[in-house]
């Protein structure tokens, strides 16, 4: 029998520890290969972005949410500062932690971080295959602004850019 997981049992830390970035790349590679058929091109894309982030990380302008349960990483979200906005990246939850409200909680915290740090614009890239994620983003005000056909993840798909603009008030 599978134990019942409650949202209150999941903790969230906002600082990196050695091994976190590599594990996030591993989770993306494993989960997206299994669920979507993405290949090594996707994992390379994730690794490249995480490397870029690690070299420019600014704890005053960037934010990380590392969700843990029983001392294991079960979810992750990164807010990356850009010249005129905040980019939402690497949002992932282990399958057994979906549907608990954790995604919603992370989105609320992402939006609070935006407001606290005077970001008025955020954006993210996803694909046409990420229906649950897209639904979460649009419920929180993100709008589809761009689409492009891509084979970057070793299969044909449509990459989609979503944007959110909020008032400073």
3D structure, described in words:
The protein contains four helices and seven strands. It has one domain (9-165): Gcn5-related N-acetyltransferase (GNAT) (Aminopeptidase). It is 34% helix and 32% strand. The chain is of the alpha+beta class. The protein has helices at residues 20-36, 40-56, 102-116, 131-139; strands at 11-13, 63-69, 72-82, 85-93, 121-127, 143-150, 157-165. β4 (85-93), α3 and β5 (121-127) form a beta-alpha-beta unit. α1 (20-36) packs antiparallel against α2 (40-56). It has a seven-stranded mixed beta sheet with strand order 1-2-3-4-5-7-6, sandwiched between helices.
CATH class: Alpha Beta
The name of the CATH superfamily reads Gcn5-related N-acetyltransferase (GNAT)
Q: Mean pLDDT, as a whole number?
A: 94
List the total number of helices.
4
Low-confidence stretches: none
Please identify the oligomeric state: single chain
Number of strands: 7
How are the elements arranged and paired?
Elements: E1 11-13, H1 20-36, H2 40-56, E2 63-69, E3 72-82, E4 85-93, H3 102-116, E5 121-127, H4 131-139, E6 143-150, E7 157-165
Helix pairs in contact: 1-2
List key phrases describing it.
Aminopeptidase, 169 residues, 4 helices, 32% strand, alpha+beta, seven-stranded mixed beta sheet
Short summary:
This protein is α+β, with helices and mostly antiparallel strands. The protein has helices at residues 20-36, 40-56, 102-116, 131-139; strands spanning 11-13, 63-69, 72-82, 85-93, 121-127, 143-150, 157-165.
């Amino acid at each position: 029998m599978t134990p019942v997981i409650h949202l209150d049992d999941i903790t969230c830390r906002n600082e990196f520890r050695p091994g976190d970035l590599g594990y996030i790349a591993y989770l993306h590679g494993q989960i997206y290969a299994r669920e979507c058929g993405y290949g090594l091109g996707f994992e390379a894309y994730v690794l490249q972005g995480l490397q870029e982030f690690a070299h420019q990380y600014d704890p005053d302008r960037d934010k990380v949410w590392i969700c843990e349960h029983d001392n294991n990483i079960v979810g992750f979200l990164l807010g990356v500062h850009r010249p005129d906005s905040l980019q939402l990246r690497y949002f992932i939850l282990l399958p057994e932690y979906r549907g608990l409200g954790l995604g919603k909680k992370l989105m609320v915290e992402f939006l609070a971080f935006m407001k606290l740090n005077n970001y008025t614009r955020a954006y993210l890239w996803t694909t046409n295959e990420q229906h649950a994620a897209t639904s979460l983003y649009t419920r929180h005000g993100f709008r589809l602004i761009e689409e492009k056909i891509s084979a970057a993840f070793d299969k044909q798909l449509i990459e989609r850019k979503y944007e959110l603009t909020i008032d400073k008030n």
